[in-house]
Specification:
Length: 314
Amino acid sequence: MKVTRIALGCGNFGGIGSAPELFGQGTQPDEAFRIMDAAWDLGLITFDTADAYGGGRSEHTIGAWLRTKSASMRSQLTIVSKTFNPVAAGEDRGLARPRILRQIETSLRRLGVERIAVYMAHDFDPDVPQAETLVAFDELVRAGKIGCTGASNFSAEQLAEALEVAELEGLSRYEVVQNEYHLLAQGDRETVFTVCRERDVAYQAFGPLAGGWLTGKYRRDAAPPPGSRMTLRPGPYERFRDVRVYAAVDAFCAAAAERGASPAALALAWLLADDDVASIVIGPTNVSHLGAVAEALELKLGADEVEELAAVFR
């Protein structure tokens, strides 16, 4: 895999992640094109998407952008896509073999490519044996339709089981796990990280800014800014509405100010300083948000600083 330390998350293109009620909203094509151009100029050559992001609109937008580029440029891009969630309200979901083999074809068509570098299980499916899912992914690897496979939103136990099944059955295994990991969600450090170290699996962190909480824009006794995640899709972040979180974010913002950095850049730099994190997925909603990426790449943190910042949120 040719994956940069920072990947461009495209979950906002044409929607807000995989939420059917928000399909058609989010970042529209013109702004998405500007974001992809700016990200490419920064050296981000990995774009992360999923078949259900925006109900297929994310993959479609990436494919439209790719058609405006040269063959040489297209060949340099690493595309990561995922499947599990329904692509429209009322449609099926899951990781059954027939569904995976069907969904990869729709993703390839929308993206306008013959091969996806990394194709992931977007969530664990308790209703389908892992062996069945891995057989389907193995078929796609052997057919040359995907380069390798990975898992997203898997626990340490689920990942370990998948790796064991793949080894016993001689199947392509998960080479990367992509989970939520940031200063406000450090749980994987004592669980999934251990499996990744022992089995040489790359760890990719998504949601590095915790839906905007680590930028300091959500304040006590103040309404969330219009258009923010806490107004569009607050569900995944409601758990952060806590006096302790507000206090920790205040302390974190003060630490960023002491370094002459933005809170967003410091949150990204904290992840980049962690050798256990192979890469992170950032999801800007406009070009200006990429400024924090450029800033973070210049911000170097020592081991003591990494631990001190982590402790603020424990």
